[in-house]
Amino acid sequence: MNKTRILSSLLPAFTVLTCVAQTEVITVTGSRLSDAAVSAQSVLTAEQIQQINPISTTQLLNAIPHLSLKENANGAGQSFVSIRGGESNFTLVMIDNVVVNDPTNSRGGGFDFNQINVAAIERIEVHRGSPSAIYGSDALSGVIHIITKTDSNTSVSLAAGSEDYRSGALTLTTNSDSGLSGLLSLSQSQRDASQFENYDNTQALIKVRFNDEQQSHQLMLNYSSKDSDSLAEDSGGVDFASPMLAEVRENQQLIAALQSKVLLTNDYLESLNVNVSWSEHTQDANHPGILPQLPQGVPASEIESQYEEKNIDVHVTGQFQAVQWAAGASAEDKTGTNTGFLNFGFELPVNYRLEQTDYSAFIETNVAVDQLKINLGARFENPENFASDTAVRLAASYQINQLTLFSSYSESFKLPSFFALAHPLVGNENLLPEEADSVELGIKFTPTNSVTGELVWYANDFTNLVDFDPELFTSVNRSQVKTQGVELTSSYQHDWLNLQVYLGYLDVDVVNENTQLRRRPDWSGGVNASVTLDDVTTSLILDTQAEFYDSSVPTGLRTLGGYTTIDINSLWQVNDNVSLTFTIDNLLDKSYQESIGFYGAERQLRVGITWQI
Questions:
Q1: Residues contacting 18, CB < 8 A, separation 6+
Q2: Dihedral in degrees, nearest 10, Cα atoms 209, 212, 216, 219
Q3: Taking residues 205-230, what's their average pLDDT?
Q4: pLDDT beyond 80 at 19
Q5: Measuring CA to CA, how many Å separate 588 from each of 540, 545, 565, 604, 609?
Q6: pLDDT at 449 over 50
Q7: Cα separation, 511 vs 513, whole angstroms
Q8: Are 394 and 378 contacting, i.e. CB atoms less than 8 angstroms apart?
Q9: 3 three-state secondary structure
Q10: For the domain with range 5-612, which CATH number is right: 2.40.170.20, 3.40.190.10, 3.90.45.10, 2.40.50.100?
Q11: How far is residue 308's CA from residue 481's CA, in Å, rounded to a whole number?
Q12: Which residues of 52-83 are buried (b: 16+ CB within 10 A; e: fewer)?
């Protein structure tokens, strides 16, 4: 929850990826089964990403309906993502089926999306709801699955824009008749708006794949780094920060994964799936501190953190008459370290090391009878130093002509972060897992192939939430938060026009506390539109947010005004090999704050060119 400023003073201030050979790579976030019951999901395809031409991954996420995103310093600072009112660390983040949440950070595992170079992304899938029964701990309110490039053409891209923005990307691909293919993607982007708003992002991606009629295998290696300077989170930004010094961060992430699928010839067994992964995230952060204009300030700090996770997941899928099923087991081995000090006029060490293993067994079934689908999932977890627990999810959908009714209920949990458990000043090894009970009811209307409408009501009950107790000066389980809301989405597709309009309402209740949660507007919405005339596609992204609460060390709790922004991009396909882009971000040059003292970028111009070979 991090509602109390003292905690801020201690900051370091399955789905198988590949399917049957010679078919498109498909994932189904929220289920391991291909024909699961309908649920609330959103997808951005490679074509849509190209049309949007985002400057960063956070800008790309802003185009996804019903996903609340705020950031500091326009890509140079931290980002905050909330699904259905949940904390940022309630969202499980995966890159190519590999979980990348880092529980050593003070946000409890919240992920900084700007450390992923947007040039490496082919597809994003968002599951709204709680699929912990599928993915395990961390997925209390949703899943964001980022799929990197797979079958892209060999190409070179260059772009430049306002405030010293420049980027470049090189993609090399090769294919053989034997089913073997490879991809190398290198990309870099830089922006130097000011001494308090600059970053340098580098990404390298290697994929080797083998497909035939009976099997598919993929080896993926992914390296990313982000060096950035920005005013510290909760400092009050350019309006209130004191001292007016940048926090300097260096982030690196390494991922290695092998994912295999073998089709089985048994009458009841369909496939054997094996996923093995290793990931490591490191961060060096030099925090200048925040002077205590209110009683609680933030000391300067120098912190180095490292998080390593090894994972193996094995499961089998099968079908018996109308019943699809998947069953398997997984094992995780996690190690987190924190080295450094807080500067109180003297250097106070805040070193810790924590290791944790987690063994899981899971099963998922899907029954399809005529127009009715029922999906049931359960996951038993036996984490080290915690009592075993089981997450469950029941979902159903029923189609009546052009109408589809769907619903789901889930019980899920999240282990406390390494930071909350092991930090030498505020850590508490006796913390209990955070828990959530979630329900959704929805209706989807498809009167024609080109028109779709969807209305969803949801409610979440989050309990045992970790918070900081200033009297005990430690982390405790005490908070309960109830959220409920409505999501309305409609879309229209035509040969030359794609249009999507969405509106969401969120109500948040912190039970028995007079507390307002930050960065959660009650109303939000947007419009995504693209028009194609001859060889030119023009896309518009409109994002609107009602007023919301935020806080900083110098100001305490404040209300920030709502805003509406418009980004526009034109893509001209000059010929089969060359395309040009012209982009205007914040077309209306709106002045707005996503966090206290952190202003959205002014009107920005960008141009780009891509050569495909």
A1: 25, 209, 211, 216, 217, 218, 259, 261
A2: -20
A3: 96
A4: no
A5: 12, 15, 7, 10, 25
A6: yes
A7: 6
A8: no
A9: coil
A10: 2.40.170.20
A11: 31
A12: bbbbbbbbbbbbbbbbbbbbbbbbbbbbbbbb
Q: Give residues with Cβ within 8 angstroms of 57, minimum separation 6.
A: 113, 114, 116, 117, 118, 121, 146
Q: By C-alpha distance, which of 86, 135, 210 is closest to 458?
A: 86
Q: Identify which of 20-29, 128-137, 287-296, 352-361 has the greatest average pLDDT.
A: 352-361
- Domain layout of the chain by residue ranges: 5-612
* Range list of β-strands (E), 291-371: 300-320, 323-343, 347-349, 352-369
Over residues 136-175, the pLDDT tens digits come to: 878 899 999 999 998 778 999 999 999 999 999 999 999 9
Query: How many CB atoms lie under 10 A from the CB of residue 591?
Result: 10
Instruction: Give the integer Cα–Cα distance in Å for 131 and 589.
Output: 39
Nearest to 489 by CA among 518, 455, 532, 443: 455
pTM over 0.90: yes
Q: How many residues does the chain have?
A: 613
Cis peptide before 243 (omega within 30 of 0): yes
Find residue 136's DSSP bridge partners.
none
Q: Amino acid identity, residue 482?
A: K
The one-letter amino acid at 153? N
Give CA–CA dist 472/388, Å, rounded.
28
Q: Please report, for residues 71, 110, 217, the alpha-carbon distance to residue 566 in angstroms, rounded to integers and kept in the order given.
A: 17, 27, 42
Tokens describing residue 195 = 């001494």
